[in-house]
Amino acid sequence: MNERNHAYIGRYNNRALYPLVDNKLVGKQLAIDAGIAVPQLLHVVRTQHEAMSLRPWLEQWSEFVIKPAKGSGGKGILVVTGRDGDRWLRVDGYPLSLDDIERHVSNTLGGLYSLGGNTDCAMIESLVQADPVFESFSYGGVPDIRTVVFQGYPVMAMVRLTTARSGGKANLHQGAVGVGLDLAHGTALSAVQMDHPISSHPDTGNAFANLQVPGWSRVLELSASCFEMTGLGYIGVDIVLDRERGPLILELNARPGLAIQIANNRGLLPRLRHVEALGSLHSRPQERVDYVRSTFTAAAEGAEALTR
Fold first, then answer.
1. Strand order in the sheet with 196-197
2. CA dihedral 251, 232, 221, 283 (to 10 degrees)
3. How far apart are the two ends of the chain, measured CA to CA in Å?
4. Can you give the pTM of this predicted structure?
5. What percent of the chain has pLDDT over 70?
6. Is 50 a residue whose pLDDT tops 50?
7. pLDDT tens for each residue of 67-85
8. CA nearest neighbour of 248 among 272, 280, 226
9. Which of 35, 132, 168, 263 supports an S-S bond with 140, CB 3.0-4.6 Å?
10. What angle do helix axes 216-230 and 24-33 make, rounded to 10 degrees?
11. How many CA atoms are closer than 13 Å to the CA of 271, on its beta-carbon side?
């Protein structure tokens, strides 16, 4: 972790650019301006007065997600999946009153979930309708794909699958499953839950060996394009697959965690050094994607995929 912080994040990420990704609202607008697809932004709450006057807005929607703009680690994300009379239903079916939602938004503004406890704003986004390809590999939520991108090259990827233990959130620290992906084809290599190897989903029982991400080339190209969009040399890119709109950029992270190595059962460092040793960088995202798909693969590196 120290080497990641000093040799890569510190060296390749200009701190002046951190607000582009540390603030999810700023990052979303950046992606929109660049023509990159993201979940629809429905509303932004910036003041406590607005937080206590949400009913007219909330009455319009039965499904939505509330996020702190400066949150991290999945904290403070409230996923609402339906209505039951005058109450909204959380992703786990728990009913929420208007007071419950207003209190959550008020806590968000006060910085309860933000980096450093700083004051924040609350983003209300449309709920992603997950691609059915993941229905048998997730439980009660929307999985996402995390890619680590170095100098514009997607060097490692995993899919984070929701579980009952994670409360329907795609957060590994809360109990989601991380499945390492072969960069060539988007197929499963190995999987972990709470850092322990597993071969099938703990709730659905389906074997990860049968998992393959559709539209894989497009997923990698979206990830690679975030280099030009942000100017950051070392970033984590989170993508969700919407059944109607396809791949959407969920958020970016200037300090992506290292659990992706455990999910892939291999280290990042050799791939990072490989990119550093290139004589010149490929100028276009698709060229960089083609390069990593032929270079950083299970076959090329001698890894064995999950047994089918």
1. 196-197, 188-193, 177-181, 153-161, 144-150, 234-242, 246-253
2. 160
3. 33
4. 0.90
5. 97
6. yes
7. 999 987 778 999 999 999 9
8. 226
9. 168
10. 110
11. 28
